[in-house]
Amino acid sequence: MDFKQIITGIYDEVKASAPDGKVSDYIPELAKVEPDKFGIALITTKGSTFSIGDVEEKFSIQSIAKVFLLSLAFSIRGDSLWERVNVEPSGNPFNSVVQLEYEKGKPRNPLINPGAHVLSDILLTELNDPYEAFLQFVRKITGTRSIDFNEKVAKSEKNLGYRNASLINLMKSYGNIENHIDAVLDFYFHICSVEMTCEQLAKAFLPYANLAQPFDFAGVTLTRSQIKRINAIMLMCGFYDESGEFAFKVGLPGKSGIGGGIVAINPKQFSVATWSPRINKKGNSIFGMRALEMLTTRTEDSIF
Ligand code: GLN
């Protein structure tokens, strides 16, 4: 497969198309990002990297961090995790309160906000220093010691985090949050504030594609069966109420964040990350989705 040629062709074509969508502005610190940044990085399980565009610039990974959070919580709790959070697609926005009320405080899945709040709560209960454990894990899996939280972004989100606070309050009323609401919020906003480049993000997700290697990073271990489950959750829930659309158009498990990042994996083959800050109404990067649709169309290869 000539990934270099395919990636370059996609980049040129998408970059030349008319800008569409808007940079997310409900987290004031993220509204400052230059809207027309664009990068694609693909790493194969054999170790080759193909990248083009703004692939060495850091951006806020936001909800993509939920996959790392899930990996830590699943590694610690195993299947008992599913007593606290379901594994069904939500068909609703990532921060919707309505469904959570109907379903008595048990989130539909770990990749919507209330799901990630429950996982954050579990890490606060289980670990002495969940902040440090989270950083150690993401540093190890990217092989980059400098990966860190962005305190400004975390603070900026916390200042206006009323909706996340309401979701956590609602779950606390149903007994599905053990720790103090403020502690859960603070940890959740920190993990969302982690910054990575496209290349680092693609590297971080390679272990979810590379099933031949044991998954063991900074003490976080997952079995092949657990990785299979995380990938299934990404396919069904990684793009919130646009997960069906992403599976339909792209056909790969993946995860988006409102910082404009998308990462997807083709099991046993590659991991690919895109960054373009202009997002659509569902919170997913428009150029990123377009580029990945072109990738699976041109390679004629997806999980289907
Ligand atoms: N931190 C953001 C929030 O909680 C993450 C949302 C996202 O990336 N979809 O609203």
What is the succession of H and E elements?
Answer: HEEEEHHHHHHHEHEEHHEEEEH
CATH superfamily of the largest domain: DD-peptidase/beta-lactamase superfamily
Low-confidence stretches: none
- Overall residue-averaged pLDDT value: 97
Radius of gyration: 18 Å
Any idea how many domains?
2
Distance between the termini: 18 Å
- What name is given to the CATH topology of the largest domain? Beta-lactamase
Give the CATH level 1 class of the largest domain.
Answer: Alpha Beta
Number of strands: 11
Strand content: 5-15%
| Major sheet summary line | 5 strands, antiparallel
Tell me the helix content. Answer: 40-55%
The CATH architecture of the largest domain can be named as 3-Layer(aba) Sandwich
**Structural class by SSE content:** alpha+beta
Ligand names = glutamine
Number of helices: 12
| Overall geometry | globular
